[in-house]
């Protein structure tokens, strides 16, 4: 069986979570996770550079094969949504610069995959991540969310690849 190493990124401007797992199509193996934190007192461009540098390190250290990022949700505050979009752009750029395919998943799809319903909360996600990856010790909810998206990608990656071939 092919073993694929996946990095999953949960973008945010204050905190960007990342998680790395391996999957052979049946089993999941936790490798690492962490959180890139930025100083809210510095300007936006410096914060985005910190996110970039913070994500480049696990990519260089773990050399994943594929990446997955959560799709942006639009909230009531347009400025916050725009800033999240900028962080998400950086989160997609870092693996793309390493020539990794980057898959995107909605929060609802992640929740359905990991906890069985699209309306769960962060605590439920954390519990299921701990169950599915017992060695994982995320240092933030964002890191746990990142692992949840990596799990989602591990379960849906072959279907996504098939869709890409059919529509090409």
Give the structure's gist in a few sentences:
This protein has 168 residues and is of the alpha/beta class.
Describe the structure.
- The chain has 168 residues and is an alpha/beta fold.
- It has one domain (4-167): Ribonuclease H-like superfamily/Ribonuclease H (Nucleotidyltransferase, domain 5).
- It contains five helices and five strands, in the order E-E-E-H-E-H-E-H-H-H.
- The protein has helices at residues 44-62, 78-97, 107-115, 122-132, 141-167; strands spanning 4-10, 15-23, 28-37, 66-70, 102-105.
- The longest helix is centred in the C-terminal third of the chain and has 27 residues, at 141-167.
- The radius of gyration is 15 Å and the shape is globular.
- The mean pLDDT is 89.
Question: How many alpha or pi helices?
Answer: 5
**SSE arrangement, N to C:** EEEHEHEHHH
For this structure, the CATH topology is: Nucleotidyltransferase, domain 5
Rg result: 15 Å
Widest beta sheet: strand line-up: 3-2-1-4-5
Instruction: Please count the beta strands (DSSP E, at least 2 residues each).
Output: 5
Structural class by SSE content: alpha/beta
Low-pLDDT runs = none
CATH architecture: 2-Layer Sandwich
CATH class: Alpha Beta
Main β-sheet: number of strands, strand sense, barrel status? Answer: 5 strands, mixed
Tally of distinct domains = 1
Rounded mean pLDDT is 89
What percentage of residues falls in helices of 4 or more residues?
40-55%
Percentage of residues in strands = 15-25%
- Coarse shape: globular
**Distance separating the two termini:** 26 Å
CATH superfamily: Ribonuclease H-like superfamily/Ribonuclease H
């Amino acid at each position: 069986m092919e073993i694929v190493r996946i990095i999953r990124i949960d973008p945010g401007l204050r905190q960007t979570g990342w998680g790395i797992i391996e999957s052979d199509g049946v089993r999941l193996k936790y490798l690492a996770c962490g959180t890139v934190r930025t100083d809210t007192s510095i300007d936006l461009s410096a914060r985005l550079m910190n996110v970039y540098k913070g994500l480049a390190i696990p990519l260089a250290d773990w050399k994943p094969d594929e990446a997955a990022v959560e799709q942006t949700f639009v909230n009531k505050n347009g400025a916050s949504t725009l800033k999240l979009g900028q962080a998400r752009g950086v989160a997609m750029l870092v693996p793309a610069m390493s020539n990794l395919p980057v898959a995107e998943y909605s929060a609802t799809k992640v929740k359905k995959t990991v906890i069985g319903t699209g309306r769960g909360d962060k605590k439920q996600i954390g519990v299921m991540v701990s169950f599915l990856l017992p060695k994982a010790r995320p240092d933030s909810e964002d890191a746990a969310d990142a692992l949840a998206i990596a799990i989602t990608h591990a379960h849906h990656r072959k279907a996504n690849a098939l869709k890409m071939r059919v529509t090409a």
